[in-house]
Amino acid sequence: MCSPFLEYRQKCRVLAIGYLFFVSLTSVFITSSTACSNGNCQVLEACSAPTDCGAGLYCGNCPALGRTQPICTRGQATNVTSIINGLPFNKYTWVITHNSFSIVDAPPLPGVQRLTFYNQEDTVTNQLKNGVRGLMLDMYEFENDIWLCHSFQGQCFNFTAFQPAINTLKEVEAFLTENPTEIVTIIIEDYVHTPKGLSNLFINAGLDKYWYPVSKMPKKGQDWPTLTEMVQANHRLLVFTSIASKEAEEGIAYQWKYMVENEPGDPGVHQGSCPNRKESKGLSSRSASLFLMNYFPTYPVQADSCKENSAPLADMANACYRAAGNVLPNFVAVNFYMRSDGGGVFDIVDKMNGRTLCGCNTVTACQAEASFGSCKNIAVPSTSPMSATSGSFTGSVQFSKSASPVHSPKCLLHFLFYLLLIAALIQL
Ligand SMILES: *[C@@H]1O[C@H](CO)[C@@H](O)[C@H](O)[C@H]1NC(C)=O
Ligand SMILES: *[C@@H]1O[C@H](CO)[C@@H](O)[C@H](O)[C@H]1NC(C)=O
Q: Which domain of life is it from (predicted)?
């Protein structure tokens, strides 16, 4: 474990300065008139109210990048299957959320002050509606049940717990039922040791009917079935566990048999390099046909995420592409997935899909019936892909109520969290 304190203090100071800067400029924003309004504003155009921006966009800013003017920012993925459908699952790239359950504003346990960090800002239902197609969930045994929780050394505490996992899985079940052509992947950091604990959990959530059987997963790096085949078979939920023995015991796929993955967290996020996670085979090994690109710092800082999810994410994507022997990832995992300086993870995933699916700079330039490399003339970064004919999703791109652009009180909470963890460790 690294020691985040010093860096953390610096971040807090930066936050405080950024916040003052932001406040001092707010009056300027309010009085400055914008050229567009009433839902006509495209991505990157200046805005002053949430209603200014077009579909799939919100009016956001990025003080961490020194930006002083809010702009319309993407909050939704492109519905890729409305452009190019029917290719093998492993040809596509999907946005996935790291710690999807760790949501700002999630109510704490009764009588407990939650002291932990947060990674996302809207509900799992809303994430799915915005086009997120993978969830990274940490599951623990807690209170005689299976909970979503942050922890230290495999233990869930009442002040780091979120909620019983079944609640979130029922949200996934409702989404898959309402959207019969969508496919969702769940990647579990698994600390559940009760035999059949996980399999019963998924059955109780009603998700067994969408289960992709392990026996049908490609084991030697071959292509997956096409999206069309997966939808027809109703095999629309892929679940991976980090515990190898559950594959034989419970029929839950062992993640690193099917997926290569780069190092997550601070050890992994270094410009220019993309080392593989220790549990994973080498990124260029071709032994598994899925590739998960992790892109998030160990300790999430909401105010920094718009900066992280912008140019540095594109650089990291290039480094990972090279490290994987010129293969693009299938999953790009981020914190605060809606935060960026404009296009964020959505633009990057569009570019990846464009290259792999049709040989174009971005997927909105693909033409359904055209040959590979025959592209529509779309500038990259484009104007709002949501205002193009490509499908727009339906999730809200407003954040939950207390998620302000700068969330500085979390610094103090983080600090207390580490102190408490140390106290807990000394007792153990
Ligand atoms: C995405 O587009 C496809 C094809 O047009 C459509 O069937 C599907 O319902 C869309 N998905 C969502 C979540 O809107
Ligand atoms: C939370 O857990 C601690 C021990 O870790 C315990 O002392 C405390 O009573 C618990 N609080 C509640 C409200 O359950």
A: Eukaryota
Q: Does the Cβ of 373 fall within 6 Å of ligand 2? A: no
Which of 181, 389, 393 to mutate to test ligand 1, by most ligand atoms within 8 A of the CB atom? 181
- If you search the block for the tokens 């027809």, which residue do you land on? 232
Report whether residue 200 contacts ligand 1, using a CB cutoff of 6 Å.
no
Please state the atom number of ligand 1 nearest to the C-alpha of residue 129. 13
For the entire predicted model, the pTM comes to: 0.86
Q: Which atom of ligand 2 is nearest to the CA of 110?
A: 13
Contact between residue 332 and residue 293 where contact means Cβ atoms under 8 Å apart? yes
**What is the position in ligand 1's atom list of the atom closest to the CA of 394?**
14
Query: Which one of 176, 179, 392 would you pick to mutate in the ligand 1 pocket, going by the greatest count of ligand atoms within 8 A of its CB?
Result: 179
E strand intervals along 50-144: 57-60, 71-74, 94-97, 134-142
CB of 390 within 6 A of ligand 1: the answer is no
Residue 384 lies in a domain: yes
Q: How far is the CA of 387 from the centre of ligand 1 (A)?
A: 16
Q: Is residue 4 part of a domain?
A: no
376 burial class (0-12, 13-18, 19+ CB within 10 angstroms)?
middle
Rounded Cα distance between 193 and 178, Å, is: 32
Helix axes 197-204, 165-178, angle to 10 degrees: 50
Segment holding 413, helix H or strand E: helix 409-427
Each residue's pLDDT, cut to its tens digit, for the chain (428 residues) gives: 333 333 444 444 444 444 434 434 443 444 444 578 888 899 999 999 888 999 899 999 999 999 999 999 999 999 999 999 999 999 999 999 999 999 998 999 999 999 999 999 999 999 999 999 999 999 999 999 999 999 877 899 999 999 999 999 999 999 999 999 999 999 999 999 999 999 999 999 999 999 999 999 999 999 999 999 999 999 999 999 999 999 999 999 999 999 999 999 888 888 889 999 999 999 999 999 999 999 999 999 999 999 999 999 999 999 999 999 999 999 999 999 999 999 999 999 999 999 999 999 999 999 988 899 999 987 655 444 444 434 455 566 655 543 333 333 344 455 555 555 555 555 44
Q: Tell me, in angstroms, the distance from the centre of ligand 2 to residue 109's CA.
A: 10
The whole-angstrom distance between residue 391's C-alpha and the CA centroid of its chain comes to: 20
CATH number at residue 386: 3.20.20.190
Residue 37 resides in a domain: no
Query: Looking at the domain assignment, is residue 62 inside a domain?
Result: no
Give the domain range for residue 293. Answer: 75-427
Whether ligand 1 lies within 6 angstroms of the CB of 391 is answered as yes
